[in-house]
Amino acid sequence: MREEETGFAERFIENADGLKLYLRDYGQDRPDIADRLPVICLPGLSRNSRDFHQLALRLSLGQAHQHRPRRVICLDYRGRGRSDWDNDKSRYQLPVEAADVLAVCAALDVPRAIFIGTSRGGLILHLLAAMKPELLAAVILNDIGPVIEISGLMHIRDYLSPAPPQASWQAAAGQLKAVHGMVFPALADQDWMDMARAIYREKTVRSCPISIPRWSSRCRRSMQTRRWRTSGPCSTD
Hints:
Layout: E1 9-14, E2 20-26, E3 39-42, H1 53-61, E4 72-75, H2 94-107, E5 113-118, H3 120-131, E6 136-142, H4 150-159, H5 169-180, H6 189-199, E7 200-205, E8 208-213, H7 217-225
Helix pairs in contact: 2-3, 5-6
């Protein structure tokens, strides 16, 4: 967690496979919002809870336009962010991750919530609507829909291919801009740096700090070896 990232509690929930799933819990101790439905944020394929930090702060502090504060829960799927990696790559699939979301809700005693799903998170919400519709009080789908093109998944597959670690945060931000800049031309250099710090983590190798992605290599291999039948349009999933 970066020093400037505050305003939430860090929690770990154990799922049915014995893996510990990491989440950020915003506003969980505020008695004035206990009677309001919480918001649960589900990130994209290779993303994590950090993606929602600014939004979660605004929602939990009541800074969003004409909205009272709410509890906000942001999850790292298995093999992403700070959650445990699954050694069985066959379990990196939507029904398993949907079951993980249900496990988190049960552990937190959340019987009903408002959900925000970005890309893969939206696909998980499609499954939850069939698995446990009473859990979904409202759903916001971001960068995903019922019609998706094969070119989108091919792009995701390609940029999840093995890449050398980046030597600095600046290099990591530059790599992201090189891959996604044409799709998001409005992003400034600071936006690419914020994205890098959300996606990468710092690791010291032979006394030299490097930046490496925050997702499991087994998760990436599972995506690359799967037969592609549908795709998502998101280019930063």
